[in-house]
Amino acid sequence: MRITVAHDFLPKTCTVRAARVMDHFGIGFEQGRHHLAEDLDLPIRSGDVVLFTGPSGSGKSSLMRAAALQLQGPSGGGVVSADAGEGPPGARVLWIEDLPAGDELLVDALPLETLDAMQLLAQCGLSEARLLLRRPCELSDGQRYRFRLARALAEKPDWIVADEFTATLDRTLAKVIAFNIRRLAERTGTGFLLATTHEDVAQDLSPDVQVRCGLEGTFEVVRAEARESPAAMGPAGRKKKESASRGSCGSARRPVATGRISLGGIIGVTDWR
Ligand SMILES: Nc1ncnc2c1ncn2[C@@H]1O[C@H](COP(=O)(O)OP(=O)(O)OP(=O)(O)O)[C@@H](O)[C@H]1O
After folding, report:
1. How much is the pLDDT for 166?
2. Smallest Cα–Cα separation from 35: which of 2, 5, 12, 67?
3. In what residue span(s) does the ABC transporter domain sit (predicted)?
4. Which ranges of 124-200 does DSSP label H, i.e. alpha helix?
5. Nearest-CA residue for atom 6 of ligand 1
6. Is 97 helix (H, G, I), strand (E, B) or coil?
7. Residue 157 pLDDT > 80, yes or no?
8. What are the tens digits of pLDDT across the range 56-71?
9. Hey, which of 24, 54, 88, 209 would disulfide with 213, CB 3.0 to 4.6 Å?
10. What pLDDT, on the 0 to 100 scale, is given for residue 200?
11. pLDDT tens, residue by residue, 113-129
12. Rounded to whole angstroms, how far apart are CA atoms 261 and 80?
């Protein structure tokens, strides 16, 4: 896939304060197009995990969006994505941030068999039983992000796109989710386009393609042909810690547990919030 990425600067009206900035710094409104990448070769294949990293403003979101739009088919918006790609056009692409969280209980929300739904939620970092009985609006931002990820995976799209990947998660959990995404990609064949400023997930994600964006407009594209097996690259400290109960969840009456400590990857209590 070859992509050209540029943003069109919008027309603006000069205000008093804008005029002061112009006078002070000797600049005017930018005009025309802001070119970020020209005919960049991204060796993306279906089912790949692609990670865009770099500091804020380096262009990772723009590049990722252009790549996703090209996989999706006709482009749109302010980002120009040009040229014929190698991948099949018209792939089904789900954007995590566009997915509605919905209003159903988590355990009911995925269009899968109960155990499969629970397993997927657990793999996405929602392995605490009581969370299954909540609605998405009763989750933290990080939990909702993980729920959206599970929701997206349950749809079995060709590609899942996530900007600010793992930004709302603590770093240990971010690594666990990255590791699980690698395994889910291999198991389901769904590809991932992920952008983040946090390079620390790269080792656990073990991306097929990593695009490192630099503030100087440079892009380093690395395709890992011979990847280490994910099992050998598990995140440090991935083993779950024993943890005490987090106290009452506010239920009126607590049913007696059936005796199982684990069901579909879900366990009674974890240290994840
Ligand atoms: N609509 C736009 N018009 C002009 N320039 C834009 C537009 N959107 C983004 N840019 C510029 O393009 C560059 C890349 O932006 P982009 O959002 O891709 O960066 P990023 O690496 O994802 O940053 P962040 O981590 O802060 O989200 C930045 O310099 C930004 O100011």
Report:
1. 82
2. 5
3. 16-239
4. 141-154, 171-188
5. 7
6. helix
7. yes
8. 999 999 999 999 999 9
9. 54
10. 87
11. 999 999 999 988 898 99
12. 51
Q: How far is ligand 1, taken at its centre, from the CA of residue 216, in Å?
A: 13
Q: What is the rounded CA–CA span in Å between residue 21 and residue 6?
A: 25
Compute, in angstroms, the gap from residue 187 CA to the centroid of ligand 1. 33
Calculate the CA 186 to chain-centre distance. Answer: 16
Which residue from 197, 249, 253, 261 is spatially nearest to 52, judged by alpha carbons? Answer: 197
- Rounded Cα gap, residues 80 and 62, in angstroms: 9
Ligand 1 contact via 57 beta carbon (within 6 Å)? yes
DSSP string, 3-61: EEEEEEPPP----HHHHHHHHHHT-----SEEEEEEEEE----TT-EEEEE-STTSSHH
Largest Cα–Cα separation, the chain: 74
Tell which atom from ligand 1 comes closest to the C-alpha of 10: 3
Read off φ and ψ for residue 238, nearest 5 degrees.
-75, -20
Rounded Cα distance, 230 and 220, in Å: 23
With both helix axes pointing from N to C terminus, report the angle between 171-188 and 114-123 in degrees, rounded to the nearest 10: 130
Residue having the nearest C-alpha atom to atom 3 of ligand 1: 7
Ligand 1 atom with minimal separation from the 54 CA: 21
- Check if 196 has its Cβ closer than 6 Å to any atom of ligand 1: no
Domains of the chain in start order, with CATH, are: 2-10+25-92+157-235 (3.40.50.300)
| CA of 197, closest atom in ligand 1 | 25
pLDDT classification of 74: cutoffs 50, 70, 90: low
Residue whose CA is closest, atom 8 of ligand 1? 7
Q: 7 in ligand 1 pocket by Cβ < 6 Å?
A: yes
- pTM for the structure as a whole: 0.79
Asked whether the beta carbons of 261 and 268 are under 8 A apart, the reply is yes
